[in-house]
Amino acid sequence: MPTALVCGAGGFIGGHLVKRLKREGFWVRGVDLKFPPFAETEADDFVVGDLRDQNFCRQITDRKFDEVYQLAADMGGAGYIFTGEHDADVMHNSATINLNMLDACQKRNVRGMFYSSSACMYPEHNQKDPDNPNCAEDSAYPAAPDSEYGWEKLFSERLYLAYNRNHGMRNRVARYHNIFGPEGTWEGGKEKAPAAVCRKVAQASNHGEVEIWGDGTQTRSFLYIDECLEGTIRLTRSEFEGPVNVGSEEMVTINQLVDLVSDIAGKKVIKKHIPGPLGVRGRNSDNRLIGQKLGWKPSATLRSGLEKTYEWIDRQIRSNTRAAA
Ligand code: NAD
Ligand code: GDD
Questions:
Q1: Facing residues of 62 across strands?
Q2: How far apart are CA 80 and CA 34, in angstroms?
Q3: Which residues form the NAD-dependent epimerase/dehydratase domain (predicted)?
Q4: How do the domains of the chain map onto residue ranges?
Q5: Cα 311 from chain centroid (whole Å)
Q6: Which side of the chain, N or C, has fewer Cβ within a 10 Å radius?
Q7: How many other CB atoms are there within 10 angstroms of residue 23's CB atom?
Q8: Cβ of residue 49 lying under 6 Å from some atom of ligand 2
Q9: Which are the contacts of 128, defined by CB distance < 8 A and separation ≥ 6?
């Protein structure tokens, strides 16, 4: 039976990845500071602990793994990474996890690891025009990410590739572009725009107001979780080390995102634009490289993913309301 280690298995992408690997017949060990908050883990073995502790990283790599996915990080949406309040924690926590896990895996002769970098590592100066952002992989340098979160990702992707060169590892690096879906953070300050907009629309009355950070003309693309897992697994099992974008090319403004969600909800809402953390003006995945190297790119529409996500978030809100009554 093939074996996999998923670091960050209590989180959004890690939790879904565990389910996918179980469906493929893997024996899976999940590791996180916490159990998944929304569903029972399907991991065969789930270890709660802190990957900033090097001894803990050595303990959880005490057996042979065919695949290792490193998804643990101190992360969140614009409301978490662009306020500046968490910069030191984000850099220290995530870099320490990556340094520890690489060291532990290399010493245990793990063949290779998957690492989840982010589109936040791309330079701000190429993402100023909301209609024409440039996120081609070769536009990364000269580096100028707009957040410390992005700088840590850039450092860590270089670290994984340095282990390939110096220690003969087969690490793989993906640059995720805003992943969304059911069982993602949807409240509390770390949620990203798709979940935040679904929550706000679900909580609004018909013809009610929905608060949006900025003027809503900033652009993004959003990738549904199932597509993200497909890209992740294909890259991990390929001969291509990356870094490569794993994202959607269906770019929308945040105003269009609100329109889509309110249409799904069957509500008319009034957008109230307020100041808030904004991040880059425009961002879109560039999928030429992943198409060339893996012969694959995502195909599901933003709307189809939002339908499932809205339905799940609406259900969370209703069950919280019932529990509070
Ligand atoms: P998430 O926050 O839901 O999951 C990350 C998990 O890491 C959390 O469950 C957290 O508890 C765990 N973790 C943090 N510090 C830890 C520690 N010291 N020890 C053990 N576990 C620890 O985030 P996610 O959306 O699932 O993202 C997974 C990865 O993908 C992260 O590396 C993130 O930076 C990257 N990424 C995600 C997106 C996205 O849109 N979701 C975009 C770009 C990159
Ligand atoms: N989160 C959030 N909540 N964003 C909002 C809201 C809101 O209520 N209203 C408007 N926005 C706007 C933000 O101001 C930002 O301009 C845009 O929606 C997208 O915000 P996020 O989805 O939170 O983050 P991001 O796209 O800037 O960055 C995310 O994607 C990266 C990868 O592409 C983050 O999740 C990063 O952690 C991730 O690496």
A1: none
A2: 19
A3: 4-246
A4: 3-179+223-246, 184-221+251-283+301-324
A5: 20
A6: C
A7: 9
A8: no
A9: 280, 281, 282
Q: Closest residue (by CA) to atom 14 of ligand 2?
A: 278
Active-site option among 122, 149, 160, 163: 149
pTM of the model: 0.98
For 267, phi then psi, to 5°, come to: -125, 150
Residue-wise pLDDT tens digits, 65-95: 999 999 999 999 999 999 999 999 999 999 9
Ligand 2 atom showing the smallest separation from residue 82 Cα? 27
State residue 305's pLDDT score: 98
Q: List the beta bridge partners of residue 118.
A: 176
CATH of domain 3-179+223-246: 3.40.50.720
Residue 310 bears catalytic tag: no
Q: What type of residue is 164? A: N
Superfamily for the 184-221+251-283+301-324 domain: UDP-galactose 4-epimerase, domain 1 (3.90.25.10)
